[in-house]
């Protein structure tokens, strides 16, 4: 029984392949990648899989029983077509089950809504495909905040427009474990899970960072408009708007979702402090 993972060269895809190797061994896994050489380090069979090239997936999914489709990272309208092409190719190739990595978040009133809606579109497309399916709605990655720690320390604070809103965070390793379970266990078919830990405020995020990293940060809320301008000037229009839209979604309560992690993974999610310690120990090794 072969399990294929798309975008396996990326950080999430890599973590999922590693988790799967521990469960089923490398010979049962196929990594598909837009840039195959970027996935060679995984130690599993690599096949070409560019979301813009459906014909590549017609070949790549031959002999595959179960597919993990990782959401793309381009323009949201284009993502809908890319994901649909992969699902169509999966059905044509005789794939039995598709697991899709979706996202939690706002479907309106936020600049992040177009991204969330493109994910919801794919969820519906998959549910109507006739294939067996499972969907994970990923929480917000914790790692980018920790990778940004030097900037926060320079400013002495975490600044964004989330206000008092709560956000359900996760890490790629946590997601990888849950997806490995969802790919290899049948009880998840027909289920949609929020894959995240307990939702926290930015005040709690700052306190937890201080506890683990010995910093002395505080949280400063600012307006959505000001934060959008700041993000666009640092990251450009596309990414800046997405990032500020995520915090706008937190402010509006759209990232405050109950966790289904235990149902997906068969264990509780690691605590926020533990996730930070794991990041810290990996960064220092
Ligand atoms: N939950 C969150 O907070 C959060 C945050 C950011 C992103 N995301 C979503 O999670 C996904 C995975 O995240 P990540 O951390 O693994 O991102 P990442 O490390 O940046 O990896 C992105 C991957 O997408 C691949 N890719 C780009 N264009 C492609 C295409 N046309 N066809 C096939 N693959 C393509 C890249 O392949 P190459 O090796 O060819 O470059 C790379 O493997 C993202 O794509 C995005 O949808 C979620």
Give the helix/strand layout:
Layout lengths: L1 E4 L5 H14 L4 E5 L11 E4 L5 H7 L3 E7 L5 H18 L3 E7 L9 H15 L4 E7 L1 E2 L1 H5 L1 H7 L1 E4 L6 E4 L1 H13 L7 E4 L3 E2 L1 H12 L4 E4 L2 H12 L1 H15 L9 H5 L6 H13 L1
Parallel strand pairs: 1-2, 1-4, 2-3, 4-5, 5-6, 6-10, 7-9, 8-12
Antiparallel strand pairs: 9-11
Helix pairs in contact: 1-7, 2-3, 3-4, 8-12, 9-10
NADP nicotinamide-adenine-dinucleotide phosphate binds next to helix 1 and strand 7.
Describe this entry's structure for a reader.
With 285 residues, the chain is an alpha/beta fold. It has a domain at 2-138 and 170-196 and 258-269: NAD(P)-binding Rossmann-like Domain (Rossmann fold, 3-Layer(aba) Sandwich), CATH 3.40.50.720. It is built from twelve helices and twelve strands. It has helices at residues 11-24, 54-60, 76-93, 113-127, 143-147, 149-155, 172-184, 202-213, 224-235, 237-251, 261-265, 272-284; strands at 2-5, 29-33, 45-48, 64-70, 97-103, 132-138, 140-141, 157-160, 167-170, 192-195, 199-200, 218-221. The strands form three sheets. It has a seven-stranded parallel beta sheet, sandwiched between helices. It has a three-stranded mixed beta sheet with strand order 7-9-11. A two-stranded parallel ribbon has the order 8-12. β5 (97-103), α4 and β6 (132-138) form a beta-alpha-beta unit. The longest helix is centred in the first third of the chain and has 18 residues, at 76-93. It is globular and about 55 Å long. It starts with a strand and ends with a helix. The mean pLDDT is 97. Residues 7, 9-13, 33-35, 38, 49-52, 70-73, 103, 138, 140-141, 172 line the site of NADP nicotinamide-adenine-dinucleotide phosphate.
């Amino acid at each position: 029984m072969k399990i294929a993972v798309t975008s396996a060269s990326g950080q999430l895809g890599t973590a999922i392949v590693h988790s799967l190797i521990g469960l089923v061994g490398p010979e049962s896994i196929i990594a598909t990648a837009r840039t195959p050489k970027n996935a060679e380090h995984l130690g599993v069979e690599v096949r070409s899989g560019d979301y813009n090239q459906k014909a590549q997936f017609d070949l790549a999914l031959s002999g595959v029983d179960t597919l993990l489709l990782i959401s793309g990272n381009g323009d949201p309208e284009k993502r809908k077509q890319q994901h649909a092409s992969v699902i169509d190719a999966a059905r044509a190739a005789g794939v039995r089950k598709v697991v899709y990595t979706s996202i939690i978040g706002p479907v309106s009133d936020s600049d992040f809504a177009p991204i969330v809606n493109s994910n919801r579109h794919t969820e519906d497309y998959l549910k109507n495909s006739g294939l067996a399916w499972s969907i994970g709605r990923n929480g917000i990655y914790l790692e980018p905040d920790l990778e940004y720690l030097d900037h926060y320390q320079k400013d002495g604070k975490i600044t964004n427009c989330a206000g008092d809103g709560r956000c359900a965070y996760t890490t790629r390793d946590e997601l990888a474990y849950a997806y490995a379970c969802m790919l290899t266990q049948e009880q998840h078919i027909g289920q949609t899970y929020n894959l995240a830990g307990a939702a926290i405020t930015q005040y709690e995020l700052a306190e937890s960072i201080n506890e683990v990293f010995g910093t002395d940060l505080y949280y400063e809320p600012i307006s959505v408009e000001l934060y959008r301008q700041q993000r666009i000037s640092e990251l450009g229009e596309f990414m800046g708007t997405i990032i500020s839209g995520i915090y706008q979604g937190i402010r509006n309560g759209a990232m405050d979702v109950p966790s289904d992690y235990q149902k997906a993974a068969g264990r509780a999610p690691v605590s926020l402090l533990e996730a930070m310690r794991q990041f810290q120990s990996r960064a220092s090794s």
